[in-house]
Design a protein that fits this description.
The chain has 157 residues and is an alpha/beta fold. Helices cover 34% and strands 28% of the residues.
């Protein structure tokens, strides 16, 4: 049993979200679906209550908690990509499945969960600091989905 995991609140679609993540991200899976043992205020016996899943090696549990709490950018999954093809594939999977684009490599899935699809070259540029980081940062600020070639050009100056 995992000692610590991220709990993500969903209105009612934790299982659908977990299955989408498992199909989309490497090293991801649906690890368990747990149903209500009896009726409860907002549901019935047999309804999916929680779903254990893994996203890119990170243990999570999805809680079908109802509409009381909404997702926000205060929580996001940051996925490091190796190249433009991987960046495009993940971004397009999220946005193309009812999600929405945002700025600077951020997008939301159809359940409102925020994702940062972040190419490794951008992270390396930021870690380098100085003028290289500033050029990469300035380029990123003009983007929705990150353009790897533009980040690499900005790194070189």
């Amino acid at each position: 049993m995992v000692k610590n995991r991220i709990c993500v609140w969903y209105d009612k679609d934790a299982e659908a979200a977990a299955r989408f993540y498992a199909e989309t991200f490497p090293d991801s899976s649906v690890d368990g679906v747990h149903r209500a043992p009896s009726d409860y205020p907002s549901g019935k016996e047999g309804d999916v209550l929680t779903v254990e899943f893994t996203v890119a090696g990170v243990a999570c549990v999805g809680l079908n908690g109802g509409p009381v709490f909404k997702q926000s950018e205060a929580f996001s999954f940051q996925i490091t990509t190796e190249d433009q093809a991987e960046t495009d594939r993940l971004w397009n999977a999220i946005v193309g499945n009812g999600g929405q684009e945002s700025a600077c490599g951020w997008c939301k899935d159809r359940w409102g969960v925020s994702w940062q699809i972040t190419p490794r070259t951008l992270l390396e540029a930021m870690a380098a600091g100085g003028a290289e980081a500033k050029r990469a940062f300035d380029a990123m600020m003009e983007m929705g989905k990150i353009d790897v070639a533009r980040i690499e050009a900005a790194r070189r100056g």
